[in-house]
Amino acid sequence: MIDQAEGLRRLVRGRSSSPKILTVASGKGGVGKTTVSANLGLLLASRGLRVCLFDADLGLPNLDLVLGLNPKHTVGEALSGDVPLREVLLTGPYGLGILAGGRDVNLAHLSFEQVENLAEELVALVRDYDLFLVDCGAGLGVAVHTFAAAADWLLLVTTPDPASLTDGYGLLKYLAQNDLKASVGLVVNQTRSFHEGREVAQRLQLAADHFLAQKVHLLGQIPYDDALVRAARKGEPVVKNAPRCLAVQALGKLAETVEEQLRGTEKRQQGGLRSLWRKFLGLNFGLGGK
């Protein structure tokens, strides 16, 4: 697999392009979305893909906590103009790129020119990556709308909990009615059995197909595993803390599926990512006006 990923990088290297975008979202908090994002990013990087993880929750980010990192700088500081964006980018295990979010971000002072400069910085930072993996905040936030609309793939994370399933469908309905063009994949987390995960997926798939005319593909289900709880308490990603546990095996299968989706697809033009960044800043914080 690593050789195949290297072949993919050779295919796209040298083009004036930027990575494919995978947006990870959930209808409510507490479903393990960030845990899936962090560990999926690590697994894809371990398979030889160049992956950049972005924590798009600039209010309550915790991607750095799940990965066990203590970043010197955050995206919030870069957006506030305190540091260049390049100083925020961390290099994690297997060369995984990480852009940690920021808490209590106040961006009211940003000018149109600063937004443009930040967009150029982002494009320059991630142009050599194969995949830009975006971990959005839970629910119907502006970030998930922006990144889902621009994504190549939307990965919706839910659990068998009825509230999680209902809110997941609500999020999908909102996105489907607002320019969602991405292929939608579903991950059912914290399942107690294969049958339970399949049943949850079928309920969402049938509702989405009937009421939204939206296809949803089940990409994986992750069993409830105490190893995830222990890893979280230690502030470590479970793929490093318990690499042979059942949850990691399921995450590995998910990584294989995502890699298969990525292989053979061309990167997007840089202008797409640049305009996405502008839109994210402008919608999220009312920026970009001259």
Characterise the protein shown here.
The protein has 290 residues and is of the alpha/beta class. The chain has a single domain, classed as P-loop containing nucleotide triphosphate hydrolases (Rossmann fold). The chain has helices at 2-12, 33-46, 63-66, 75-79, 112-126, 142-150, 162-176, 194-212, 226-234, 238-241, 246-262, 270-285; strands spanning 17-18, 20-25, 51-55, 90-91, 97-99, 131-135, 153-158, 183-191, 216-223, 268-269. The strands form two sheets. An eight-stranded mixed β-sheet has the order 4-5-3-6-2-7-8-9, sandwiched between helices. A two-stranded antiparallel ribbon has the order 1-10. A hairpin with a 5-residue loop joins strand 4 and strand 5 (97-99). The longest helix has 19 residues, at 194-212. It is globular, with a radius of gyration of 18 Å. The termini are far apart. The relative contact order is 0.20.
> Helix/strand/pairing class, anyone?
alpha/beta
Strand coverage percent = 15-25%
CATH architecture verdict: 3-Layer(aba) Sandwich
How many discrete domains? 1
Helix content: 40-55%
CATH class: Alpha Beta
What gyration radius follows from the Cα positions, in whole Å?
Answer: 18 Å
* Span between termini: 48 Å
- So what's the overall shape? globular
Number of helices: 12
The strand count comes to 10
CATH topology: Rossmann fold
Query: Can you tell me the residue ranges where pLDDT is under 50 for at least 5 consecutive residues?
Result: 1-16, 283-290
N to C succession of SSEs = HEEHEHHEEHEHEHEHEHHHEH
CATH superfamily: P-loop containing nucleotide triphosphate hydrolases
* Average pLDDT level: 82
The description of the largest β-sheet is:
8 strands, mixed
